[in-house]
Design a protein that fits this description.
The protein is α+β, with helices and mostly antiparallel strands. The protein has one domain. It is built from six helices and five strands; from the N terminus they run ββαβαββαααα. It is globular.
């Protein structure tokens, strides 16, 4: 029986993080770190990885994490939560571009509201607080 992949690894060209790992469901990173470590080791990568946990954490303060991969494994003490303000617009744009094409994943997600799913599908990444934007949209209705 094959396991459904729990993350999607994408290259970020010219960024501080060479790779971003996108959540594909409710799985926490610690559930798939061994698989991700094997994939990164095969790529002979060493450096920081960005985790975008939109589908398992939603638009909360723990959406983004970074961690250092030493070529074999993630250093446990290197996991750090990043605020939205610590990420540049190119990284946010790449995140929303990825998730905007994942209709089935968005449809099956219970953490995100309909309004938030709409924003993701439209690729809205410039606002630093999507929850505030969602509330503003609802107020206008």
């Amino acid at each position: 029986m094959s396991m459904k992949k729990q993350y999607h690894l994408t290259v970020l060209n010219g960024e501080l993080y060479k790779y971003v790992s996108f959540s594909l469901g409710y799985s926490r990173p610690e559930e798939y770190l061994p698989s991700l470590e094997k994939e990164l080791a095969r790529k002979k990568f060493q450096g920081y990885i960005l985790f975008d946990l939109l589908l398992c954490n939603g638009f909360n303060s723990q959406r983004y994490l970074k961690s250092y991969f030493d070529g074999n494994s993630f250093q446990e003490d290197s996991f750090v939560i990043l605020t939205d303000k610590e990420l540049n617009s190119k990284i946010k744009e790449a995140s929303f571009k990825f998730y905007s094409t994942q209709n089935e994943l968005l449809d099956n997600n219970c953490l995100l509201t309909k309004a938030q799913k709409f924003l993701v599908r439209k690729g809205y990444y410039k606002n630093t607080n999507p929850t505030d934007l969602t509330n503003q949209m609802i107020e206008k209705l």
